[in-house]
Amino acid sequence: MVENAVRRLGFLRVVGVDEVGRGCLAGPVVVAAVVLHPDRPIKGVRDSKLLSPAARERLYVEITKRADAWTIASSAPEEIDRLNVHWASLEAMRRAVNNLAPLPDFVLVDGFRIPGLFLPQRRVIGGDRRCAVIAAASIVAKVTRDRQMLKLHSCDPRYGFGSHKGYATPQHLDAVARFGRSLAHRRSFRTPVRFDRIAPPVAQRGLKIKGG
Known about the structure:
The protein is an alpha/beta fold. The protein has two domains: 2-151, Ribonuclease H-like superfamily/Ribonuclease H (Nucleotidyltransferase, domain 5, 2-Layer Sandwich); 153-201, no CATH class. The protein is 40% helix and 14% strand. It has eight helices and five strands, in the order αββαβααββαααα. It has helices at residues 2-8, 53-66, 77-83, 85-98, 127-130, 132-155, 161-164, 170-179, and strands at residues 14-20, 29-35, 69-75, 106-110, 121-124. The chain has a five-stranded mixed sheet with strand order 3-2-1-4-5, with helices on both faces. β1 and β2 (29-35) form a beta hairpin. α2 packs across α6 (132-155) and α3 (77-83) packs across α4 (85-98). It is globular and about 55 Å long. The mean pLDDT is 91.
């Protein structure tokens, strides 16, 4: 594991950072930052995409209970539209790391470097398959975001957020073509359907997307 090599250099408190939701048409980007104790490995931790929903839920509970520290940060659709999804994701990553107390000694990030972060860091391509701390962050981020999308689905079931979680499936694109976009949708994303028509106000009742 990459974090073991970092620890051998003297960095003991190593955090893994990963995000979920960059490629979605709707909902937030969610980032998790997780610090695991090197002497307390959690069996079964791996890239969240390789796990079943039930396994992710089980590991989420174990990670959040046994981790030395963990935080969540997110970027709402409004921030994504204002900054673009790449910079909004990096900003959420920066917030997640800075919210840890105490701060980590070293930061391992899946695929990116975080600008404006005054801590030693390393981007790791394919990090969720090479680092236990990044894999743990991928699980926490995925479960957190899926739960948020299920809440959005309960507010407005027309879009099917509970099944596709905001990704551009045929079902989702068909719903946007029929009803227009909701407050959960990212206005800046290009799609095969028109995204400038807003769903009727009644569909927005109770719909809040948090960032930060």
